[in-house]
Protein backbone atom coordinates (compact mmCIF):
# COMPACT_ATOMS: atom_id res chain seq x y z
CA UNK A 1 0.00 0.00 0.00
CA UNK A 2 1.38 3.39 -0.93
CA UNK A 3 1.55 6.22 1.56
CA UNK A 4 -1.91 7.62 2.03
CA UNK A 5 -3.84 9.75 4.48
CA UNK A 6 -1.67 11.05 7.33
CA UNK A 7 1.33 9.12 6.04
CA UNK A 8 -0.05 5.58 6.24
CA UNK A 9 2.27 3.29 4.26
CA UNK A 10 0.94 -0.21 4.92
CA UNK A 11 -1.10 -2.29 7.30
CA UNK A 12 -1.67 -5.96 8.06
CA UNK A 13 -4.24 -7.94 9.97
CA UNK A 14 -3.47 -10.11 12.98
CA UNK A 15 -5.57 -12.94 14.47
CA UNK A 16 -6.74 -11.19 17.65
CA UNK A 17 -6.85 -7.69 19.18
CA UNK A 18 -3.44 -6.24 20.05
CA UNK A 19 -2.23 -4.89 23.38
CA UNK A 20 1.39 -4.01 22.69
CA UNK A 21 3.96 -3.51 19.97
CA UNK A 22 7.73 -3.41 19.98
CA UNK A 23 9.88 -2.53 17.00
CA UNK A 24 13.43 -3.56 16.33
CA UNK A 25 15.50 -1.78 13.71
CA UNK A 26 19.14 -2.13 12.83
CA UNK A 27 19.31 -3.63 9.37
CA UNK A 28 17.16 -3.74 6.27
CA UNK A 29 14.55 -5.67 8.23
CA UNK A 30 12.47 -4.63 11.20
CA UNK A 31 10.13 -6.63 13.34
CA UNK A 32 7.04 -5.81 15.35
CA UNK A 33 5.56 -7.78 18.21
CA UNK A 34 1.86 -7.61 18.94
CA UNK A 35 -0.19 -9.32 21.62
CA UNK A 36 -3.71 -10.03 22.80
CA UNK A 37 -5.60 -7.54 24.92
CA UNK A 38 -8.44 -8.44 27.26
CA UNK A 39 -9.33 -11.07 29.81
CA UNK A 40 -8.44 -14.72 29.30
CA UNK A 41 -11.95 -15.59 30.49
CA UNK A 42 -13.66 -13.15 28.14
CA UNK A 43 -14.48 -13.27 24.47
CA UNK A 44 -10.91 -14.14 23.44
CA UNK A 45 -9.66 -16.97 25.69
CA UNK A 46 -6.35 -17.26 23.85
CA UNK A 47 -3.49 -14.88 23.19
CA UNK A 48 -1.09 -14.43 20.32
CA UNK A 49 2.39 -13.19 19.63
CA UNK A 50 2.75 -12.14 16.01
CA UNK A 51 6.00 -11.38 14.24
CA UNK A 52 5.88 -9.03 11.24
CA UNK A 53 8.63 -7.89 8.94
CA UNK A 54 9.04 -4.51 7.29
CA UNK A 55 10.92 -4.36 4.00
CA UNK A 56 10.72 -1.09 2.18
CA UNK A 57 7.04 -0.18 1.94
CA UNK A 58 5.75 -3.69 2.73
CA UNK A 59 4.51 -4.99 6.08
CA UNK A 60 4.09 -8.77 6.20
CA UNK A 61 3.27 -11.23 8.96
CA UNK A 62 5.99 -13.88 9.30
CA UNK A 63 4.32 -16.04 11.91
CA UNK A 64 1.98 -16.21 14.87
CA UNK A 65 2.26 -18.11 18.15
CA UNK A 66 -1.03 -18.80 19.92
CA UNK A 67 -1.04 -19.06 23.70
CA UNK A 68 -3.58 -20.23 26.25
CA UNK A 69 -3.41 -16.99 28.25
CA UNK A 70 -3.67 -13.31 27.43
CA UNK A 71 -0.31 -11.91 26.37
CA UNK A 72 0.42 -8.38 27.56
CA UNK A 73 3.85 -7.56 26.15
CA UNK A 74 6.89 -8.98 24.39
CA UNK A 75 10.47 -8.27 23.34
CA UNK A 76 12.92 -9.57 20.73
CA UNK A 77 16.49 -10.85 20.97
CA UNK A 78 18.58 -11.31 17.85
CA UNK A 79 21.47 -13.69 18.57
CA UNK A 80 23.59 -15.41 15.89
CA UNK A 81 20.90 -14.98 13.21
CA UNK A 82 18.26 -16.51 15.52
CA UNK A 83 15.19 -14.59 16.60
CA UNK A 84 14.29 -15.21 20.23
CA UNK A 85 11.10 -13.80 21.67
CA UNK A 86 10.07 -13.34 25.29
CA UNK A 87 6.38 -12.75 26.08
CA UNK A 88 4.75 -11.67 29.34
CA UNK A 89 1.25 -12.92 30.12
CA UNK A 90 -1.68 -12.27 32.41
CA UNK A 91 -0.78 -15.11 34.76
CA UNK A 92 2.68 -13.74 35.49
CA UNK A 93 4.63 -16.09 33.20
CA UNK A 94 7.45 -15.27 30.82
CA UNK A 95 7.61 -17.54 27.77
CA UNK A 96 10.59 -17.74 25.40
CA UNK A 97 10.61 -19.08 21.84
CA UNK A 98 13.27 -19.58 19.21
CA UNK A 99 10.69 -17.92 17.03
CA UNK A 100 11.31 -19.23 13.53
CA UNK A 101 12.65 -22.64 14.62
CA UNK A 102 9.68 -24.09 16.48
CA UNK A 103 6.16 -23.43 17.72
CA UNK A 104 7.12 -25.10 21.00
CA UNK A 105 8.48 -22.65 23.61
CA UNK A 106 11.99 -23.16 24.90
CA UNK A 107 10.79 -22.41 28.41
CA UNK A 108 7.98 -20.79 30.38
CA UNK A 109 8.40 -19.80 34.02
CA UNK A 110 6.58 -17.90 36.74
CA UNK A 111 8.12 -14.43 36.80
CA UNK A 112 5.53 -12.51 38.84
CA UNK A 113 2.65 -13.15 41.21
CA UNK A 114 -0.29 -11.95 39.17
CA UNK A 115 -0.02 -10.44 35.70
CA UNK A 116 3.34 -9.60 34.15
CA UNK A 117 2.67 -6.18 32.63
CA UNK A 118 5.85 -5.51 30.61
CA UNK A 119 9.02 -7.19 29.41
CA UNK A 120 11.85 -5.30 27.67
CA UNK A 121 15.41 -6.02 26.56
CA UNK A 122 18.23 -4.53 28.62
CA UNK A 123 20.53 -2.48 26.33
CA UNK A 124 24.15 -3.58 26.01
CA UNK A 125 23.49 -6.82 27.88
CA UNK A 126 23.27 -9.95 25.74
CA UNK A 127 20.09 -11.87 26.38
CA UNK A 128 18.91 -10.05 29.49
CA UNK A 129 15.37 -8.79 29.95
CA UNK A 130 13.57 -6.70 32.54
CA UNK A 131 9.98 -7.43 33.51
CA UNK A 132 7.42 -5.85 35.84
CA UNK A 133 4.11 -6.92 37.27
CA UNK A 134 1.14 -6.28 39.50
CA UNK A 135 3.10 -7.73 42.44
CA UNK A 136 4.97 -4.42 42.74
CA UNK A 137 8.26 -5.84 41.51
CA UNK A 138 10.60 -5.40 38.58
CA UNK A 139 12.90 -8.33 37.83
CA UNK A 140 16.03 -8.72 35.73
CA UNK A 141 16.44 -12.08 33.98
CA UNK A 142 19.21 -14.09 32.37
CA UNK A 143 17.16 -15.48 29.51
CA UNK A 144 19.42 -18.38 28.33
CA UNK A 145 19.59 -19.73 31.89
CA UNK A 146 15.98 -18.76 32.72
CA UNK A 147 17.21 -17.43 36.06
CA UNK A 148 16.60 -14.24 38.01
CA UNK A 149 19.58 -11.89 38.30
CA UNK A 150 17.98 -9.28 40.54
CA UNK A 151 14.59 -8.35 41.99
CA UNK A 152 13.68 -4.71 42.56
CA UNK A 153 10.96 -3.55 44.92
CA UNK A 154 9.36 -0.45 43.45
CA UNK A 155 7.76 1.90 45.97
CA UNK A 156 7.97 2.33 49.70
CA UNK A 157 5.83 -0.67 50.57
CA UNK A 158 6.85 -2.80 47.56
CA UNK A 159 3.23 -3.36 46.62
CA UNK A 160 0.89 -2.06 43.95
CA UNK A 161 1.15 -2.72 40.25
CA UNK A 162 4.22 -1.65 38.30
CA UNK A 163 2.71 -0.66 34.96
CA UNK A 164 5.80 0.02 32.84
CA UNK A 165 9.60 -0.12 32.84
CA UNK A 166 12.10 1.68 30.61
CA UNK A 167 15.88 1.19 30.58
CA UNK A 168 18.36 4.01 30.19
CA UNK A 169 20.28 3.94 26.87
CA UNK A 170 23.40 2.74 28.71
CA UNK A 171 21.47 -0.08 30.35
CA UNK A 172 22.71 0.82 33.84
CA UNK A 173 19.42 2.15 35.24
CA UNK A 174 15.70 1.94 34.62
CA UNK A 175 12.49 3.78 35.33
CA UNK A 176 9.40 2.04 36.71
CA UNK A 177 5.90 3.54 36.90
CA UNK A 178 3.75 2.75 39.91
CA UNK A 179 0.93 4.77 41.41
CA UNK A 180 1.49 8.49 40.86
CA UNK A 181 5.24 8.22 40.39
CA UNK A 182 8.09 6.93 38.28
CA UNK A 183 10.99 5.56 40.30
CA UNK A 184 14.52 5.51 38.83
CA UNK A 185 16.70 2.65 40.07
CA UNK A 186 20.34 1.73 39.56
CA UNK A 187 20.52 -1.84 38.26
CA UNK A 188 23.85 -2.86 39.82
CA UNK A 189 23.28 -1.47 43.31
CA UNK A 190 19.46 -1.76 43.44
CA UNK A 191 19.50 1.79 44.78
CA UNK A 192 16.77 4.35 44.15
CA UNK A 193 18.25 7.26 42.21
CA UNK A 194 15.19 9.49 42.14
CA UNK A 195 11.42 9.50 42.55
CA UNK A 196 9.47 11.46 39.95
CA UNK A 197 5.97 12.41 41.02
CA UNK A 198 3.10 13.25 38.68
CA UNK A 199 -0.53 14.30 39.28
CA UNK A 200 -2.29 11.11 38.19
CA UNK A 201 -1.76 7.37 37.87
CA UNK A 202 1.45 6.81 35.91
CA UNK A 203 0.90 4.50 32.94
CA UNK A 204 4.08 4.59 30.84
CA UNK A 205 7.62 5.96 30.75
CA UNK A 206 10.38 6.34 28.17
CA UNK A 207 14.03 7.38 28.37
CA UNK A 208 15.43 9.79 25.76
CA UNK A 209 18.26 8.62 23.53
CA UNK A 210 20.78 10.99 25.14
CA UNK A 211 19.94 9.57 28.57
CA UNK A 212 19.16 12.95 30.13
CA UNK A 213 15.37 13.08 29.96
CA UNK A 214 12.61 10.69 30.95
CA UNK A 215 8.99 11.14 29.87
CA UNK A 216 6.19 9.87 32.11
CA UNK A 217 2.61 9.53 30.86
CA UNK A 218 -0.40 9.68 33.14
CA UNK A 219 -4.05 8.68 33.27
CA UNK A 220 -5.04 12.35 32.97
CA UNK A 221 -3.43 12.65 29.53
CA UNK A 222 -0.52 14.76 30.80
CA UNK A 223 2.99 13.86 29.67
CA UNK A 224 5.58 15.04 32.21
CA UNK A 225 9.26 15.42 31.30
CA UNK A 226 12.07 15.22 33.85
CA UNK A 227 15.81 15.86 33.66
CA UNK A 228 17.32 12.85 35.46
CA UNK A 229 20.26 15.03 36.55
CA UNK A 230 18.04 17.45 38.51
CA UNK A 231 16.84 15.18 41.32
CA UNK A 232 13.31 14.80 40.06
CA UNK A 233 12.51 18.38 39.19
CA UNK A 234 10.10 18.47 36.22
CA UNK A 235 11.13 20.30 33.07
CA UNK A 236 7.70 20.69 31.55
CA UNK A 237 4.28 19.05 31.18
CA UNK A 238 2.41 18.49 27.93
CA UNK A 239 -1.35 17.98 27.73
CA UNK A 240 -1.72 15.24 25.13
CA UNK A 241 -5.16 13.63 24.99
CA UNK A 242 -8.52 14.11 26.65
CA UNK A 243 -8.20 10.55 27.96
CA UNK A 244 -5.29 8.67 29.45
CA UNK A 245 -1.91 7.90 27.88
CA UNK A 246 -1.41 4.24 27.09
CA UNK A 247 2.18 4.25 25.82
CA UNK A 248 4.92 6.84 25.30
CA UNK A 249 8.05 6.52 23.16
CA UNK A 250 10.83 8.78 21.87
CA UNK A 251 11.52 9.21 18.18
CA UNK A 252 14.90 10.93 18.10
CA UNK A 253 14.22 14.26 19.90
CA UNK A 254 10.47 14.05 19.41
CA UNK A 255 7.82 12.34 21.51
CA UNK A 256 5.27 9.75 20.41
CA UNK A 257 2.28 8.87 22.57
CA UNK A 258 -0.82 6.80 22.04
CA UNK A 259 -4.01 7.45 23.94
CA UNK A 260 -7.09 5.59 25.03
CA UNK A 261 -9.00 7.55 22.35
CA UNK A 262 -7.37 5.59 19.48
CA UNK A 263 -5.07 8.42 18.38
CA UNK A 264 -1.31 8.76 18.17
CA UNK A 265 0.29 12.13 18.82
CA UNK A 266 3.69 13.45 17.72
CA UNK A 267 5.30 16.34 19.59
CA UNK A 268 8.51 18.15 18.77
CA UNK A 269 10.66 20.29 21.02
CA UNK A 270 10.43 23.95 20.12
CA UNK A 271 14.02 25.16 20.56
CA UNK A 272 12.97 28.78 20.72
CA UNK A 273 10.65 27.93 23.61
CA UNK A 274 13.21 26.16 25.77
CA UNK A 275 11.65 22.99 27.19
CA UNK A 276 8.27 23.53 25.52
CA UNK A 277 6.95 20.80 23.21
CA UNK A 278 4.43 21.61 20.49
CA UNK A 279 2.13 19.13 18.79
CA UNK A 280 2.92 18.34 15.18
CA UNK A 281 0.24 15.80 14.35
CA UNK A 282 -2.55 13.59 15.65
CA UNK A 283 -3.11 10.33 13.79
CA UNK A 284 -6.55 8.71 13.93
CA UNK A 285 -4.85 5.40 13.52
CA UNK A 286 -7.15 2.60 14.72
CA UNK A 287 -10.81 1.82 15.31
CA UNK A 288 -11.48 1.40 19.01
CA UNK A 289 -8.81 1.67 21.69
CA UNK A 290 -5.21 2.34 20.66
CA UNK A 291 -2.82 -0.28 22.03
CA UNK A 292 0.75 0.64 21.19
CA UNK A 293 3.21 2.78 19.26
CA UNK A 294 6.93 2.48 18.63
CA UNK A 295 9.64 4.13 16.55
CA UNK A 296 10.86 1.76 13.87
CA UNK A 297 13.66 3.79 12.33
CA UNK A 298 14.50 7.38 11.44
CA UNK A 299 11.52 7.61 9.08
CA UNK A 300 8.89 5.03 10.17
CA UNK A 301 6.44 4.52 13.03
CA UNK A 302 4.48 1.36 13.83
CA UNK A 303 1.17 1.16 15.71
CA UNK A 304 -1.26 -1.56 16.77
CA UNK A 305 -4.78 -1.58 18.15
CA UNK A 306 -7.78 -3.51 19.33
CA UNK A 307 -9.07 -3.53 15.74
CA UNK A 308 -6.69 -6.47 15.00
CA UNK A 309 -4.39 -4.42 12.83
CA UNK A 310 -0.77 -3.33 12.77
CA UNK A 311 0.09 -0.21 10.74
CA UNK A 312 3.25 1.29 9.30
CA UNK A 313 3.49 5.08 8.97
CA UNK A 314 5.84 7.49 7.26
CA UNK A 315 7.15 9.76 9.99
CA UNK A 316 7.98 12.57 7.58
CA UNK A 317 4.51 12.52 6.01
CA UNK A 318 2.74 12.14 9.35
CA UNK A 319 4.47 15.16 10.84
CA UNK A 320 3.41 17.54 8.05
From TrEMBL:
Q: What PANTHER family does the record tag this protein with? A: PEROXISOMAL TARGETING SIGNAL 2 RECEPTOR (PTHR46027:SF1)
Q: Does the keyword Signal apply?
A: no
Cite the InterPro entries for this sequence.
PEX7, WD40/YVTN_repeat-like_dom_sf, WD40_repeat_dom_sf, WD40_rpt
Give GO terms: molecular function aspect only: peroxisome matrix targeting signal-2 binding
Name its GO BP terms in alphabetical order. Answer: protein import into peroxisome matrix
What the entry lists under Pfam families is as follows: WD40
In the UniProt record, the signal sequence range is none
The answer to whether the entry has keyword Protein transport is yes
Query: Record's Gene Ontology CC terms?
Result: cytosol; peroxisomal matrix
Q: Which UniProt keywords apply?
A: Cytoplasm, Peroxisome, Protein transport, Transport
SMART domains attached to this UniProt entry: WD40
Q: Which organism is it from?
A: Rhodosorus marinus
- Which named protein is this? Peroxin-7
Phylogenetic lineage: Eukaryota, Rhodophyta, Stylonematophyceae, Stylonematales, Stylonemataceae
User: What protein family does this chain belong to?
Assistant: Belongs to the WD repeat peroxin-7 family.
* Subcellular location as annotated: Cytoplasm, Cytosol; Peroxisome matrix
Name the major location. cytoplasm
